[in-house]
Design goal:
Radius of gyration: 20 Å
Shape: globular
Number of strands: 0
Mean pLDDT: 85
Helix content: 55-70%
Number of helices: 11
Structural class: mainly alpha
């Protein structure tokens, strides 16, 4: 509802769009825990407990990374976040101004989506299929589809927050100016909307490709390593990144959304 695929390709541009997405995603651990507990199976219960612990552990670093973006944008609207990255093309993208936050976001998003190397809730060697063990047919399809829908949402968020959303590596307004076309022309706006939609989807699927690439190249971590990474490393680094962003905004307001 609040994910923009273009300047005007959004259902509802609410002022707290990013907060709304994080709030909705925070409900998922309850369902996973209930799915494991209601299966009357020790493997399912352990998988549900792992899923809840993992999701809670990595939601906080994820929120801190997003909060640093909101601090630079002076708002939580997804449209405002993309527009803030549009002035100088690829050089304006938040991935350059928030490299630490981008790494935190990628790691936390992969953990939230339970992708390798963080697929501990469904580790076949330990828990058979985790909280999905006792489910088959359409119920298993819902779990499986929900996992990839979560990955798609993470890719869209990465595109919007750090990779300029629908913006191209060079400002599309300069393209129309170079071609001598009025930016308000109806047919040009249709073309620009199609280009923006394509740009958003390409960036999103690049994130998904990266997640799938990791699945075949990186070994699974242990549960203690997973929780240590979240609480002992990503959380303090996320807090430090937020403080550094606030200091840089005060020192260089022209570059950090002051």
């Amino acid at each position: 509802l609040v994910i923009p695929f273009g300047q005007n390709l959004i259902i509802s541009d609410i002022g707290t769009g990013v907060f709304f997405i994080i709030a909705i995603s925070s409900v998922a651990p309850i369902g996973l825990l209930m799915a494991g507990y209601s299966s009357n199976n020790k493997y399912s219960l352990l998988g549900g407990l792992r899923a809840a612990a993992q999701s809670i552990s990595y939601e906080i670093p994820l929120a801190l990374a997003v909060l640093a973006i909101a601090l630079m944008t002076n708002g939580l609207s997804t449209i405002d976040i993309v527009n803030q990255q549009a002035e100088y093309g690829i050089l304006s993208w938040n991935v350059w101004r928030q490299p630490i936050g981008f790494v935190i976001f990628i790691i936390a998003a992969l953990a939230e989506c339970e992708r390798l190397p963080f697929d501990l809730p469904e580790a076949e060697e330990e828990l058979v299929a985790g909280y999905q063990t006792e489910y088959a047919g359409i119920r298993f399809a819902f779990f499986y589809g929900g996992s990839y829908a979560n990955l798609l949402l993470a890719g869209l968020l990465a595109s919007i927050l750090y990779l300029g959303g629908w913006e191209l590596p060079f400002p599309i307004d300069k393209i129309s100016a170079a071609l001598g076309i009025e930016a308000n022309t109806a047919w040009w706006q249709v073309i620009a909307a199609f280009i923006g939609l394509t740009s958003t989807l390409v960036k999103t699927y690049a994130f998904i490709f990266f997640a799938i690439l990791l699945r075949w190249t990186v070994p699974r971590v242990r549960i203690d390593q997973l929780l240590d990474l979240g609480w002992k490393f990503l959380l303090p680094i996320g807090l430090a990144n937020l403080l550094i962003t606030a200091a840089l905004k005060l020192a260089f307001p022209f570059a950090f959304g002051g």
